[in-house]
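help with this record:
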Amino acid sequence: MRARDFRSQAWSAMNGKWATLALITLLVSLIEGGLAGLSIIGVGAIVLLLVTGPLMLGTTIISLKVMRGNYVSVGDMFLGFKNFGNAFLLALLNEIFVFLWSLLLIVPGIIKAYAYRMSFYILADNPDMDANTARIRSIEMMKGNKWRLFCLDLSFIGWLILCLLTCGILSFWVMPYMQCSTAAFYQDLIRERNNMQNATPNAAPEQPAEPFAESAPAQSENSDLELGNGNSEENK
């Protein structure tokens, strides 16, 4: 699928939800902006650090609910606080690793930022998962797909220019549009991987299985047994 396909899916799924999503984006912006303004006295910076991850998880859950045809309310923006610990740690880990990679040069930092982009979507679908595992699974999921996501982001350049021309007002609609398009991208990655597994149910993986592959261990065991039988026949 191409960038326009993800945008088309998001546009259709957001039908009837534009006002709610714009209001959520406005409220999140006000919360983060207000805390950033209070950072000069120190307290705001600490609170902003604490709430950034849960708010990101909340908006991620909302975008997935939109793409799956579920009802969305303004209160959903706080759903991330139900998994506060993992959401906070995930945001912190992502920021730390992106910063460390950026010390090498800007490009490695950007590449790693794209490698971690699916981490909050994975955490949203797996609330019992720990933060670091979600980050690692995102890295595995984004192998070979970072350029595709970059092209999706780049396809919004026209909308972002319009946001500038409207002094940021249009961004309250464009940002959820981008988030839902990314959610569509995430679901496509899941679909592609499931199709690949179904196409080769008995094939042993050439590389170590991704952590989110439940069937991979069984496949690996079967492959080991087959190899073991083959070796025993040769020895005979």
Notes: The chain is about 70% helix and 0% strand. Residues 201-236 form one domain. Residues 171-199 form the longest helix (29 residues).
